[in-house]
Design a protein that fits this description.
The protein is of the alpha+beta class. Helix content is about 40%, strand content about 20%. The chain is built from 14 helices and 27 strands. A hairpin with a 2-residue loop joins strand 25 (about 405-410) and strand 26. Helix 2 (about 115-125) crosses helix 3, helix 5 (about 160-205) packs across helix 10 and helix 5 (about 160-205) packs antiparallel against helix 13. It is elongated, with a radius of gyration of 31 Å.
């Protein structure tokens, strides 16, 4: 801590607490409690700045229900375990309408003086407070850190005179209320932009964005003709590969060998919406090559042919991040089979349900790269634009189509290359695909600019919040009053009372033992 303002004193959090209460681990169902059921609070209930009562599970162990563990309005709740960024998240419970018990990961602080509650809350949310929490938390991985009660009590709290503390909290709440209102407006605008973009994607793949274009333009090749050409070219390539194999083996092609060609299955259009004139329904596997990446076992961590490879951590919505790319050994044959080319679309095969199937176009960010089995590659056929296919896949992700076909194992949703390949694909002519991409880009570019401006404003709001907290805890937010009782006097009184209580406890124990 830096030098304290005049009249302030440095206390430990333990000196301001009467005690810390903790819950237990209970058998639960993964849903919020209903009516007269009893819940158990989850870590996420205290993560986002306000107490979220519905972020709880339903206790199915009625014999262990303990009303003393019920969360009440005004309780100070603290998360002892979470990621490095979220361990120590805290809230003061406000809206409480259900019986929800403390869990073994959520602590309740009881203060000797309730006036310190909001002061400590804001201190623990400040940069200085967060630095202490993160330094005191234990754990080898950022994915789960833990801070024990002994460490919690060591957190240093800069304590102003009581009257000054009251003035600071009042001013801070006033300023943060205005800041929160602005943030709420920004987040509402952010949500509307996301909805607008989703509506654009839906309109794009339904032909609505190019309805006027169709009235004045007639493509040289309809979508039906395009699809027929694609399928013909695909069969020709298959036959060429088969003949090359026969030649390599020194064999003559057997009778009726062409009949072994795996004919593509036509999509079932019975329940699909009607497409614009000139469009046709296809299946994804008819419009491009679908391939799951290669699993890389530990024995491939080293080898003579180390190749950069992409995984889920590299594929974000519409862009690929190659700042953290790993390498694995691929045989020359495997590298040829799984080597990425510009225009390939990668989709997250294994991901959280919300982001399963998240797509991005590989644009040659790396000169040499393969991909693992956590990704699915879609390589468009000649006549299918990668940018148009990306719009289709983005629409499927945001509309929930990918979520519907995904299978969940151990909390991870799997898209499945086979299930993905069988999905329907709305196919327009090449000329109309070009127009769809152009119109969509023009409309979304402005939305992207607005989204970037909102993101910057939110970032500045976060910085402004920390500036206010820093001013509050350095004594710069309100004028000081020289006649206020110094905080050291209050702290000495607290320590004296604590010492007296310890003496009383000791004497009581001695008297009890001598009986």
């Amino acid at each position: 801590m830096s030098e304290l303002p005049k009249g302030w004193a440095l206390a430990s959090l333990g000196e301001l607490l009467q005690n810390i209460e903790t819950g237990k681990s209970f058998k639960c169902e993964e849903r919020p409690p209903m009516h007269d059921e009893v819940g158990v609070v989850k870590v996420s209930a205290v993560t986002w700045g306000r107490y979220q009562e519905l972020e709880s599970k339903t206790c199915i162990d009625p014999e262990r229900v303990n009303p003393a563990l019920f969360i009440a309005a005004g309780d100070f709740l603290f998360s002892r375990a979470n990621t490095i960024d979220l361990v120590g998240a805290c809230v003061i419970a406000e809206n409480v309408g259900r019986h929800v018990m403390l869990s073994d990961k959520i602590l309740r602080f009881r203060f000797t003086d309730e006036s310190h509650k909001y002061w400590v809350l804001n201190l623990l949310r400040s940069k200085a407070g967060r630095q202490q929490i993160e330094a005191l938390a234990s754990g080898n991985q950022d994915s789960m850190r833990n801070i024990g009660q002994e460490k919690i009590q060591q957190i240093e709290i800069p304590l102003p005179p009581s009257a000054e503390q009251t003035r600071i909290i009042a001013k801070l709440e006033e300023l943060l209320e205005g800041l929160d209102a602005g943030v709420a407006e920004l987040k509402a605008a952010q949500k509307k932009l996301a909805q607008y973009r989703q509506s654009l994607l839906k309109a794009a793949v339904a032909g609505e964005l190019t309805a006027e274009w169709r009235q004045h333009n007639r493509p040289t090749e309809t979508a039906a003709q395009l699809l027929e050409r694609i399928l013909t070219e695909r069969r020709t390539r298959w036959e060429a590969r088969q003949l090359a194999k026969f030649k390599e083996q020194g064999k003559a092609p057997p009778k009726d060998w062409q009949q072994k060609y795996p004919e593509p299955v036509q999509p079932d259009t019975a329940d699909l919406p009607e497409l614009p004139e000139g469009w046709v329904w296809a299946r994804i596997e008819q419009t491009g090559e679908v391939q799951l990446g290669r699993q890389r076992a530990p024995q491939f961590h080293t080898g003579p042919n180390m190749v950069p490879y992409l995984r889920v951590a590299n594929v974000f919505e519409e862009h690929i991040d190659v700042s953290d790319v790993m390498e694995m050994h691929f045989s020359e044959e495997d590298e040829a089979a799984f080597k990425l080319a510009p225009g390939d679309i990668l989709l997250n095969e294994g991901q959280s349900l919300e982001w399963v199937g998240r797509p991005a176009i590989f644009r040659g960010e790396l000169q040499r790269a393969c991909f693992t089995n956590t990704l699915v590659r879609f390589r468009p056929e000649n006549g299918v634009l990668a940018e148009y296919a990306l719009a289709v896949f983005l629409h499927y992700m945001h509309s929930g189509k990918f979520r519907k076909i995904a299978k969940i194992t151990t909390n991870i949703a799997h898209l499945g290359a086979g299930r993905f390949a069988e999905l329907e694909f709305p196919l327009p002519s090449v000329e109309e695909q070009i127009e769809v991409v152009r119109v969509l880009r023009d409309l979304t570019d402005e939305a992207h600019r607005q989204a970037a401006a909102i993101a910057l404003a939110l970032k500045r709001s976060t910085a402004q919040r920390q500036n206010l907290l820093r001013a509050a805890f350095s004594g710069q937010l309100v004028p000081q009053a020289p006649d206020n009782e110094p905080a050291r006097v209050l702290l000495e009184r607290i320590r004296a009372e604590r010492a007296a209580q310890e003496i009383t406890k000791t004497l009581y124990k001695k008297g009890k033992n001598s009986r």
